[in-house]
Input
Amino acid sequence: MNPEVVAFDQLEWSDSPGVEQRLVTRTHHSGELIELPVARIRGAKPGPQFTVISGMHAGEYSGILAAQKLISAITPAELSGTLLVVPVISTRAFMERYMQLNPIDQKEIHFIRPGSPGGTYSDMLIDTLFEVVKDSDYLIDSHAGEMAQALYSWVPVPMWGPEDLREKSLSLARGFSVKYIEPRYDEASIPPLSLAFASVGMANVWVECGKNGVPTEADTAVHFDGYIAALQTVGMLEGEPARPEQEVLKGRRSQINSDMSGVWHPAVKEGDIVEAGQYLGRLTDYFGNTLNDYHSPTRSLVLYYWSNPAINADRRPHGYNWHNGLVSLLELED
Ligand SMILES: [Zn+2]
Output
């Protein structure tokens, strides 16, 4: 199939069952081009609209490969409803192998609300994505750990909006073969883009599976199998959805950051449960002299830690603490 290049304001889809692949383009006022790959599979039978997106953070590859696999795996004949797949959102960052932030304006796009296409490049990118997917009933957003990020796989669920929407979002998470799901009730802890999806009635989750920018077959399969289970859950594919054993995480998130630049020596691993006061690691200067020791404030689960030793306390574009983060924790009740 030859994907068709289509300008954002010319985008239209067929009413007949079939598969379409489009590279949606939009030019930012800076002159920089947005290119968003979108596959659409319209099923032979009626049903809801379901969207899978990945590659928001460009080095989170396991979801990207799973989304690609989904495009080729689903046929219109077996599908009830419409499936949209955006395998790579941040194509510019992907091709530059740029970690976590957008290379043009240094923004973290998970924290951007759509609706400001006249803003920076990332504002327009998120607006474009949102406009393409906004009529969906369900959305799964696949993430993983970036090259610098050793992450323990889990599925956060935004528990925001009407009760039935929350229940639908939870049902999307139930098919992922991860140890933990994390319903989030505190609005401030839910990324603004996820809130924007929920605000137009889209049940949604974001899936964190995979680490250090390495797309293993096992992690890719967790994403892919989770999509299939979710499509079965909402009746778009036949079959009984998988319901792997999961534990529900409750507790506040916290992040240990460094206010100094230096070389990070972590002493914990992702998935560890650490006690209050437990040693987490130390920051040294270039020579190995200790600048600071870090300890856990509470009994916590280590969701991820920065496995990359380079810590830069001065690089905080738009206030984002990606380059001075050390450990991301979820507080556990005793
Ligand atoms: Zn991510």
